[in-house]
């Protein structure tokens, strides 16, 4: 029998720093909710709005898989591995922090707001060599399809990370129905609604709602509105 | 009541950041070191409430550290700190201290 946990949009942590308007699906920074520490290896799901030209100065990370998906605008990224890049909406960036890496992230545009999802997963192996990658997403393939954008394998579709996780992104027409099969036994799925309204395993979800499901091998999905866009994170439920 | 937190990590730059973050809150006193020898010396010399294990500590060193701390001060909690500036720190410490 599958189990689930529902995180409605308005129950997320919220911090408005003026230049940064952040919503946290899980405990982060000064938002602490012992009931919202993680879902399996998913530790952070931040939905950040960043003013033009503003951002996060150089700061360190270690032993974390950090995935950034710009929803609108572009991010200017620089890190201690020598990478300097701009990641635009329609692309994905991944960083395995491993033994330690420092990076800065700024809104690359002066006069346009940046909206990004930043996702942190616990790795399945500590102290790996830090690694960076970014890729353009196949946006056309996401129409009425959960297109894989991340996996544990360099040979599979999308970027790869140091964890037995698969991310898929889809944009759906109203009324479209499908089933998503979980990639690895024991994994759960955390579904995050980027826009629109959908029904997943009988739960109706609106924009920015999150639903975690586990103890199952598949989930049912239906788009209720024409602008439905959903990120599925298929992740281990046990911390390594 | 102020709690004393000992951070052990191998990256000097991250250790500096951790020192700043831990000591930014009046309820915490942070001591941050890069070597296990420094850590054990501090544990022998003063009261510590919580040990955070940071980046770059290999499995053998971590095992030895945990064993040595447990022998010296069995009541001290030892937790893994996953770096990322201040993002996870508060939650990790609050969870560890119950």
Description of the molecule:
The complex is a heterodimer of chains A (240) and B (98). With 240 residues, chain A is mainly β. In chain A, 0% of the residues lie in helices and 54% in strands. By secondary structure, chain B is of the alpha/beta class. Chain B contains 4 helices and 4 strands. Chain B has a 4-stranded parallel sheet with strand order 2-1-3-4, sandwiched between helices. The mean pLDDT of chain B is 93. At the A-B interface, strand 5 of A face helix 1 and helix 4 of B.
Which key features would you list for this structure?
heterodimer; A: 240 residues; mainly beta; Jelly Rolls; 7-stranded antiparallel β-sheet; 54% strand; B: 98 residues; alpha/beta; Rossmann fold; 4-stranded parallel β-sheet; 4 strands; globular; metal-binding (chain A); Pirin (chain A)
Describe how the helices and strands are arranged.
The complex is a heterodimer of chains A (240) and B (98).
Chain A: E1 3-7, E2 13-16, E3 20-24, E4 42-50, E5 55-61, E6 65-72, E7 74-79, E8 84-88, E9 91-96, E10 101-107, E11 114-121, E12 131-136, E13 147-151, E14 159-160, E15 166-172, E16 177-181, E17 187-195, E18 198-200, E19 203-205, E20 210-214, E21 218-223, E22 228-236
Parallel strand pairs in A: 13-14
Antiparallel strand pairs in A: 1-20, 2-3, 3-4, 4-11, 5-10, 6-9, 6-11, 7-8, 7-10, 9-12, 13-15, 15-22, 16-21, 17-20, 17-22, 18-19, 18-21
Chain B: E1 3-8, H1 12-22, E2 28-33, H2 36-45, E3 50-53, H3 59-72, E4 77-80, H4 89-97
Parallel strand pairs in B: 1-2, 1-3, 3-4
Helix pairs in contact in B: 2-3
């Amino acid at each position: 029998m599958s189990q689930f946990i529902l995180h409605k949009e308005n129950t997320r942590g919220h911090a408005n720093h003026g230049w940064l308007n952040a919503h946290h699906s899980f405990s982060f920074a000064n938002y602490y909710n012992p009931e919202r520490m993680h879902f399996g290896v998913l530790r952070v799901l931040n939905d950040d709005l960043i003013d033009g030209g503003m951002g996060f100065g150089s700061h360190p990370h270690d032993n974390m898989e950090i995935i950034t998906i710009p929803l609108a605008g572009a991010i200017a990224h620089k890190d201690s591995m020598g990478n300097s890049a701009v990641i635009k909406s329609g692309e994905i960036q991944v960083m395995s922090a491993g033994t330690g890496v420092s990076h800065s992230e700024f809104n690359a545009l002066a006069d346009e707001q940046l909206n990004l999802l930043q996702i942190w997963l616990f790795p399945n192996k500590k102290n790996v060599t830090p690694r960076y990658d970014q890729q353009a997403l196949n946006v056309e393939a996401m129409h009425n399809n959960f297109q894989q954008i991340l996996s544990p394998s360099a040979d599979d579709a999308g970027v790869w990370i140091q964890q037995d996780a698969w991310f898929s992104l889809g944009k759906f027409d109203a009324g479209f129905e499908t089933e998503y099969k979980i990639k690895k036994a024991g994994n759960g799925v955390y579904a995050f609604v980027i826009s629109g309204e959908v029904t997943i395993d009988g739960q109706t979800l609106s924009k920015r709602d999150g639903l975690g499901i586990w103890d199952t091998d598949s989930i049912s999905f239906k788009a209720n509105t024409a602008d439905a866009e959903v990120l599925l994170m298929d992740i281990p439920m046990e911390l390594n | 009541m102020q709690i004393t937190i000992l951070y052990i990590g191998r990256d000097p730059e991250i250790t500096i950041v951790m020192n700043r973050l831990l000591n930014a809150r009046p309820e915490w006193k942070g001591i941050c070191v890069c070597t296990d020898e420094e850590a054990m010396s501090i544990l022998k010399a003063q009261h510590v409430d919580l040990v955070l294990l940071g980046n770059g500590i290999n499995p053998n060193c971590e095992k030895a550290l945990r064993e040595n701390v447990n022998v010296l001060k069995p009541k001290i909690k030892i937790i893994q700190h996953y770096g990322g500036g201040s993002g996870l720190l508060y939650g990790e410490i609050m969870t560890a201290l119950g």
